[in-house]
Design a protein that fits this description.
1 helix; four-stranded antiparallel β-sheet; disordered N terminus; five-stranded antiparallel β-sheet; 9 strands; mainly beta; single chain
Length: 136
């Protein structure tokens, strides 16, 4: 039974990560009273299809979080976006030497999840790095 479960989990991971090579992601969370901040940084060595980075932000009161996300790339262009509290899309492009910073009040999905969509514009992006700061 464990082998079947491990095989299914492995297949789901492969399906979910097709088109990207994600090497690392680290997050840290600080809680002081009702105030919560979370900082994440991560990278994709290559990104050849649209991907959604999901950030689980637990213990948030309400359905939004203040977000500031900075993205850099070594090669290629990427469009990044997230949904704001009022359903609008906050988006922009990053290119080599032209970092992108997105800021706004992000709508949380499934109560505690912020989603960032990453879409390569030139077929493939290499050396994508992001820093994300969330605060409530």
């Amino acid at each position: 039974m464990r082998l079947i479960t491990a095989t299914i989990v492995g297949i789901l991971l492969l399906i979910g990560l097709a088109g990207c090579d994600m090497n690392s992601r680290q997050c840290s969370k600080t809680t002081i009273g009702l105030s919560i901040t979370m900082d994440c940084e991560g990278r994709y060595d290559t990104l050849s299809s649209e991907q959604t980075a999901r950030f689980e932000i637990e213990d948030i009161v309400g359905m939004t979080v203040d977000a500031r996300i900075t993205i850099t790339v070594e090669r290629g262009r990427v469009r990044a976006s997230f949904e704001s509290w009022d359903g609008q899309t906050i988006a922009g492009e990053a290119a080599p030497g032209v970092p992108l910073t997105l800021t706004g009040e992000a709508r949380l999905q499934f109560i505690d999840e912020m989603r960032l969509t990453l879409q390569p514009l030139d077929g493939e992006v290499t050396g994508l790095r992001y820093q994300a700061h969330f605060e409530k």
